[in-house]
Amino acid sequence: MPELPEVEVVRRGLDDHVRGRTIASAVIRHPRAVRRHIAGPEDLAARVFGATITGTARRGKYLWLILDGRDALLMHLGMSGQMLITSPEAAVAPHERARFTLTDGGHDLRFDDQRTFGHLMYDEGGAVLPSPIAHIARDPFDAQFDQAAAVARIKTRRAGIKRALLDQTLVSGIGNIYADEALWAAKVHGETAASSLTKPRISAVIDAAREVMAAALAQGGTSFDRLYVDVAGSSGYFSRSLSVYGLAGHPCTRCGTPVVREQFMNRSSHFCPVCQRKR
């Protein structure tokens, strides 16, 4: 699933291409693409008609278009969602779920989603923060992120520190890839109880997460296949710089011990058993 760096890459691309443009039409090609918009596809299309895109915003793994400085078209990419800038003459793609044309006749905005886990949703008055994601915590790149408060929240959890990092109500934007990378960088085992760590140690983990995500952002995000691309359809290159995620059996670049992969919830954890001793 795209995490903070990948979603931020998409947001920046959208901002460059659609800010200041007005929506001429919206065609919803698959109802699952707007399943969270209770009023249905026709209602969403009607609401965005004639709206001017005055900006873009993001919180954690969610992004949205700001419409007329007041409302929001909220987007979540799910596992395979893609927001693409495409020629108006381009044929309907196999996994195209929605297309927005613009009044200036320039490139369209298209939402593709192979696995249909992503979704679009209109939120009236949601320009600053859409109501469906009001419970999502700020992320480490947010100008108003309060790291001390986030550390204090995490410190109350008896669950493993990795579970706490993935809890988007504590700190947002960090997913499985960057949690593993941050914990490796901070030399902390993911199953260490968050409550057993000192506040400086938890803060160091968040610092590591910020640093690794900033590095990923600089390289366009992490792509393992063609499911994550930017608005121009290009992949990110940070997968070449990963230290542990997806590298089971490879030597740890710090100590040479083979990286271990273990089942974690419905996914996997990757770590160095020497650098990240389980305590």
Describe the structure.
This protein has six helices and ten strands; from the N terminus they run αβαβββββββααααββ. By secondary structure, the chain is of the alpha+beta class. The protein folds into two domains: 4-133, MutM-like, N-terminal (N-terminal domain of MutM-like DNA repair proteins), CATH 3.20.190.10; 147-271, Orthogonal Bundle (Helicase, Ruva Protein, domain 3). Strands 1-6-7-5 form a four-stranded antiparallel β-sheet. Strands 2-3-4-8 form a four-stranded antiparallel β-sheet, with helices on one face. Strands 9-10 form a two-stranded antiparallel sheet. It is elongated, with a radius of gyration of 20 Å.
How widely separated are the two ends?
A: 29 Å
Largest sheet report: 4 strands, antiparallel
Mean pLDDT: 95
Number of strands: 10
Beta content: 15-25%
| CATH fold label of the largest domain | N-terminal domain of MutM-like DNA repair proteins
The CATH C-level name of the largest domain is: Alpha Beta
Stretches with pLDDT under 50, minimum 5 residues = none
Any idea how many domains? 2
| Subunit arrangement of the protein | single chain
Major sheet: arrangement of strands: 1-6-7-5
